[in-house]
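Problem: given the chain below (342 residues), write out its structure.
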Amino acid sequence: MYTSILSLALGIASLPLVASHPGEDHHKEAMKRREFLQNSGVANLDHCAGQLEASGVTARSIQRRQNLVHGIREKRGLVARGSGHVGRSYDAQVNEAENFKKNASCILAPEEILGPYYVAGEYIRSNVVEDQVGVPVHLDISFIDVNTCKPLVNSYADIWQANATGVYGGVVQEGFENRNDTWEETWGLTWLRGIQKTDEDGAVHFETIFPGHYEGRAVHIHVLTHPDAKPLPNNTIIDERASHVGQMYFDQDLVDRVEETAPYNTNNQPRTSNAEDEFLQGDLAEGGYPYLQYQLVGDKLEDGLVAWLNFGVNGTEDKIVDPITTYHPRPTQPPKACPAKH
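Solution.
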């Protein structure tokens, strides 16, 4: 079975792929997305706020994010803008807790916006950077069932994204060969892709870099949840079913600041702003809010940031997803993760 899947995927991969999700009709897909939100009756997690508070999920998420930021600062010897984590005032601690309590939330339609660069058979790991260079990002993502308002526990979350110059690893983005900017064949590579298992609060943590832009889409990170996946002996997951497929976005002012730094400023692909992205605007129009909240780790953007988001997920969904390829088999151990660099 895996052999046939791989053979088919290799054939698909030989077709022309361009950077802007080839073959997609962005307007058509965005309209399908908007129709889903209108029919679902639920676009965010506002109705779950009380239950999440009462069960301690909110308090633990605040503490988890605080610990993450402070741990990174201690490890790197960094001090946050305005105050360090040593000797902070009570007011500073309260303000920080309120910041970490901000839970952007949305419910996204399974299947509708998977995109063509989803690869099955990725490694279970938290650090997906490998040799990619860019602004470090520590993701804290939680998944909450919008029907029960309870965390999605023991589900595997899959992320994938473009690198600083708008290129996806694991696939071959043809159409770059005749461009003047840097192009590399990325078929079979694993960077900026990985899977983690959700904990008792439905949360996962990933270490990655800030994604770069590519033609036709705003800057984003893909996310997918597998409801009943089983790890293989080589520490990967091959699963064609999903309870949720979505994307995470960043504030436009943050995107603009990042893209002034290297190597983002070497990306010559046409840019699409948040205001021009139909998928994002459709979410916002229906009451969703798929923006990652964030806090800088240090005084400089290049020091990185912690970003978080609570996803509202329909826990009863069980859809089939179609990867562009399936990597099988792979070595037991993934490539060594390299620290994110500027």
